[in-house]
Each structure stands twice: as C-alpha cells, then as structure tokens.
Amino acid sequence: MPELLALAALALGAASLDGALATRSPAAALRETARLLGRQRRRTPMPDLLLMRIGVVSLPFFATLAMIVLPLGGAALVESSVGIVWFNAMEVCAWASLWLTGWGPNSVYPLIGGYRFLAQGLAYELPHMFALITVALGAGSLDLRAVEEAQRGAWFALWMPVAFAIYLISALAMAFWGPMSRPLGSDLAGGVTAELSGPDRLVFQAGRYLMLAVAAWAAGPLFLGGGGLAGAAAVLAVLVLVKHRVPAVRMDRFTQASWLVLLPLALLQLLVVGIVVI
Q: How far apart are CA 198 and CA 7, in angstroms?
C-alpha cells in the first residue's frame, strides 16, 4: 500500500537524518539497528512483561492507525468524515503506550519517565485540540479531504499562524521529541526506555520515529494545503533539526507556558477564525 510505504519512508528518513546529525554518519541508523538486534533483552526483578511488551508494540501500532486517515494524493487509506477526530484520538492512545512501557519494567526511572509523559500530555493536549478545532471550523468539516479543499485559496498556515505554531509544538510533544523529550531524559538514564534493550528498544524507537512522521505528514492536509510527501518531508526535517538545536524543557515550565500562554492564544485564534467564518 502506498500510504504504508510513504509512512515507512518518512520514518526511515527521520531516523537517518537524526543519526547523521548526531554522529555525522549517514549510516548511523543502520548500525544502531544492527546493534540492537544483536543485544539480549534486559531483565528487572518482578517486571510485568506483558504490559511492557503491549506498551512497546502498541506505539508503532497507534502511529499507523493515526496515519490511515491522512490523505496522500487526494485519497487516504481509510476515508473518514471525522478524520481529525480519529487522528487526535490515536495520538492520545499513544499515551497508554508510554505509560505501560514505563510501568511494566518495575523500575524507578521508567516509571518517573511515564509520569513525566502524562504531565506533558495534559499540558499540550488542550492547546493542540483547540488548534485542530480551529482547522475544522475554518474548513467547516472534520474530514481531512474537505480541509484540503478549503485551502485552495490560501493555506491555513497563513491565516491561522498561531494554530500552526501550536500544532508544531504539539507534534514535538506527541512524539516526545527534542525539547519535549524529558520523558526519555538523560537525568533518568533514559526514562521510559531505561530498561529497554535489544528488539524491545528497537521497536519502541521505530514507534517514536513513526509518531514523528505521522505528525509531520498531518501538517500537510491540516495547514499546508495538501498531503504531499514533499511538504511532510520538509516539516519532518524541521522537527528533526529542532532536536539538535533546542534543549529539553522542564515539564513544570512547559505546563505553565502551555496553560498560561499557548491555551489563551489557541482560544484567541479560534475566536478570530470563528468571526471570519461567520
């Protein structure tokens, strides 16, 4: 299926660019994959392996489910009249993946990382949701194909710049990436992933890149007038670069900024779009 191949290509491109920026070697991602495949799984005392494995495997699963409603060349894998709602619901389901991965090993650092992600999710989700509602209001529909059609005259990124900026911040948060990577912080020896090794870590990392790719892909139909891969690749490259240019943000400070700054701005943007539409 072309949509699945496109998602895999975007995720692989993100991993390759990330590895190249980190080590200045284009083959870094391939070497890391080979290294993880050859390592044994780590064991902790009295883990809940079933919950941990569900968490690890469900992250790429939910990322793929979020992708199925995203248009590519005017069509999506699954046509839905409520595509925006489905996309938002699936990225919220990924919260469970992080929590189970942190809870399952029965270890302190992964558990703290899981709590950090819950705090991050509660901080970013409301501004993110209102940014998506603003898009739906501007298009008069929750169907991503209708949202694309509504941008024939002007991209939503141009007359909804605040919503677009909030979406990009949310994209970093939903993929726990760059400045929003505190759930995997080095101060916690890797946080949620502290006890993951071998194939478990590889699958989890693949899920993370898939979430990032899906977030970048969705920016096209939501704000950039279409779901073409060129636009998705450009947004994805920006998100990857942010990781290597912007330091991680403390959760308490991000929560404060989100609720006191991003949320009012999101509501103001929604009000402006509502007035224009009316």
A: 23
How many other CB atoms sit within 10 Å of the CB of residue 75? 11
* pLDDT number for residue 227: 64
Q: Are 127 and 88 in contact (CB under 8 A)?
A: no
Is the pLDDT at 210 greater than 80, yes or no?
yes
Q: How does DSSP assign 143-174, residue by residue? A: -HHHHHHTTSSS-HHHH-HHHHHHHHHHHHHH
Mean pLDDT, the chain, whole residue set = 90
Domain boundaries, the chain: 2-277
Question: What is the CB neighbour count within 10 angstroms for residue 163?
Answer: 29
Q: Is the pLDDT of residue 87 over 70?
A: yes
Total Cβ atoms within 10 A of residue 229: 17
Which residues are CB-neighbours of 24 under 8 A, at least 6 positions away?
Answer: none
Q: How far apart are CA 52 and CA 107, in angstroms?
A: 11
